Amino acid sequence: MKxxxxxxxxxGKFVVGFCIFMALLAMVIFYPLFVPDDPxxxxxxxxxxxxxxxxxxxxxxxxxxxxxxxxxxxTEKRIASKLTEENKKDMKTWLIMDGIPADxxxxxxxxxLLKLWENEYSKSKTLGMTYAKQRYYQRLNASVQGLLSKxxxxxxxxxxxxxxxxEIATIQQTDYVNVKQVANVRWFPLGTDNFGRDILTELxxxxxxxxxxxxxxxxxxxxxxxxxxxxxxxxxxxxDDVIMFITNLFTxxxxxxxxxxISYSIGQDKRGAFTIATVIGLTSWVWTTRAVRSQVISLRxxxxxxxxxxxxxxxxxxxxxxxxxxxxxxxxxxxILQISSGILxxxxxxxxxxxxxxxxxxxxxxxxxxxxxxxxxxxGKWWAYLPVLVTIALITFSMNLMNTGLDQVFNPALRD
Amino acid sequence: xKGYRKYFLNKLVxxxxxxxxxxxxxxxxxxxxxxxxxxxxxARIAQGMSNSTxxxxxxxxxxxxxxxxxxxxxxxxxxxxxxxxxxxxTSFSQFPRPVSDILSSSIWWTICLQFPAIIIxxxxxxxxxxxxxxxxxxxxxxxxxxxxxxxxxPAFGMAVILMxxxxxxxxxFPTSGGYGFDLIPDFSWKFIWSVIxxxxxxxxSIVIIAIGGQAIGMRSMSIYELNADYVKYSRFMxxxxxxxxxxxFRNAMLPQITGLALSIGTMVGGALIAEIVFSYPGLGxxxxxxxxxxxxxxxxxxxxxxxxxxxxxxxxIEMIYGLIDPRIKAAQSD
Lengths: 416, 334
Prior knowledge:
The complex is a heterodimer. By secondary structure, chain A is mainly alpha-helical.
């Protein structure tokens, strides 16, 4: 046993897969200890907030200490963040019509563009434009001038009893607060989803639930497959014929179709995560049965099995102590594959809208389903679907790496 | 030829048995579930109906049309009769369109998308896998991890990623539909071009996934064959490498064909999900709409058609396998 483990952990592929998997598992276990938030709580009022740090504006105005910092490029950055690409293009169009050669106008260099604009623009130059166009440029100019102003903002508060507005603070353009001194700062490393939930928290929980679904489905499938395979391979005869008939039937009938039919028949309200896991397990045992059966058949007539038979051991005993140990490595490999395909099956079902009901727990498939329904991929909200895909891919990839590693240890023909 | 006929008949009987079983499952599963499906259906149809006699009549009409008041066996006969006359009932979500009409418009999209994609993916995957086994070293080191990663990637994930890169960012291909939404199906060049352009992303997303899985299988098969005695013997005989590779490839190919027959169901399942991502007007997308619209007759018909398609594809592959594997003929004529 120790020797086998030693061998397994010397396989590069297995170790890489194992490390990725353990990292994911550690994340799933330890993250909730540090961030105990409810993963399904809608925090954001609105959909798809991009990843980043969210600083409370109210608290930053009222921050205890304000710092004054003079930075040369502050104004430029501020304007750059306000001017859209379209604004810049329009400014360029106007300047070209005004007679400035196009190669002198660089829309990426904000300060020179603004300087040029300030020098050239005047309301009286109509340049033969329609009235609507003229008005548009007047407005654009006004907003540019507003951006260029050096005055601060005044914060007013309405006094409820008198109805007067009182000035409570003035914010200069050079005022800063230290983020640490702002009372409310929330970090969304992966933004929020369409319901305004924190995606990272949701993703970690979902990964945990999906792993559990995979585990339950895998255990059920492996158990059924192992039992049927052992009986069919060892007992043989008509039992073997019947079991193989059923197995062959379920091999050709796509399990996806079965899953769809059963999940739909169960109905949305009764579909918990573990019901789905059970259904997946019940529909995916055929491969294990086939593999175990063929292994058992090759073992059935080995000398030690015959010896056991002659010594009068019971069938049950022979299967457990003379056959099972020989195929254990195989069964573990099958279990690993079943877990990863169970996770994929749940995801596929959920995308069809037949996954677990949406109110209890998030799963990777449900998150993907929500992202697709709310068109995150078309709208360019990558944080809503990409982390989910990467997580699914990492889980299945790590499991398959472990499987390939084990395969190479136990199956010398495949070694390099 | 006699042996082959036996093999063929054998497989035909098997096709028949599996088809009967598929019908049976499709018939029985929804009926096994708790609750009264007809009551659920009437509740949907009768939404906003305040007339209780009207509701009762609707209920009884459905009861009759599904034959639920008769014994199970009669029900099954009725069901089989309906299926064979192409009568799958009326769709709920696209009322009053008959289900068979919806299916006949979507099935061709699926067949034209999935079968070429799976076959091409299978061919490319096998070639790459054999090359990886034969060339080893550098090529193998690159192809294998990529193949493992790609084959573990969920089909919908590949679809989403291709779509975001080539559809949303680069705008080379449209992101959804089977043809331009402003076109009416006809045989003009514009329409055909639109179909071709819309075809690319769903097609390649299925192909890439298929390549990964097949390459891994073919690689291990080829490695196994390359170490076989006949290869060593041929080497000693001084037979040219090219010729040996040809033998190896042929021998490694046979299990791969069986593998294709066995995995075609899974592949079709994955490809249906890829269709959904691209809103491709095939069976997958129809299925999604049916699930969304709680359209039971449509779901049942789509799953049945998919199963039958897989069974027939399976049968076809096994026929081909029988033709090219000499052992089959030998075994059957004993």
